[in-house]
Amino acid sequence: MNILVIDGQGGKLGRKLIESIRKVCPEAEITAVGTNSTASINMMRSECADHIATGENAVIVGCRKAEMIVGPFGIAMADSMFGEISPAMANAVASSQAHRVLIPMNLCDTYVAGVAQGSQAIIEDAMKYISRLTGKPAEDKSEAQNGGRNDETANV
């Protein structure tokens, strides 16, 4: 599976996503694209991506080749991430035939209702979905902690 991870700003979310994807789907071909060089360098430090690129054209080309696109919600919104996402980048993400796994974040004048900023549960949920798409069953941590039961009475 060809997975494209896109991030901007400092690339911290992208780096975390790449490391998490590699654990869930070790055979995936992961391409990391930063909207700026700082984001690309930080994602490269994960040492888990197969390819690293930077900039608008890399996002556009990557979206054409990807089977799955992963990144913050803003990568599909023109002018988000303090202007780092151009209309062409957002259009490439939104019009791609790839599955999109977008991490909701309440940043850059966009409020996504029901989202707690910085929640690890959001990334875990994204990894479960990626596991399903790649055909790799992910361990449900809540079930493992509850002895295989995932109901409200398990923690009582």
Tell me the CATH topology.
Rossmann fold
Structural class of the helix and strand makeup? alpha/beta
Question: What's the number of domains?
Answer: 1
Binned, the helix content reads 40-55%
3D architecture notes:
By secondary structure, the protein is α/β, with parallel strands linked by helices. It has a single domain (2-155), classed as Rossmann fold. The chain contains seven helices and five strands; from the N terminus they run E-H-E-H-E-H-E-H-H-E-H-H. Strands 3-2-1-4-5 form a five-stranded parallel sheet, with helices on both faces. It starts with a strand and ends in an 11-residue tail after the last helix.
Attribute tags:
156 residues, alpha/beta, Rossmann fold, five-stranded parallel beta sheet, 5 strands, 41% helix, globular, disordered C terminus
Concise overview:
The protein has 156 residues and is an alpha/beta fold. The protein contains 7 helices and 5 strands; from the N terminus they run βαβαβαβααβαα.
What topology emerges from the helices and strands here?
Blueprint: E1 2-7, H1 12-24, E2 29-34, H2 37-44, E3 51-54, H3 56-65, E4 68-72, H4 80-83, H5 87-95, E5 99-103, H6 120-134, H7 141-145
Parallel strand pairs: 1-2, 1-4, 2-3, 4-5
Helix pairs in contact: 1-2, 1-6, 3-5
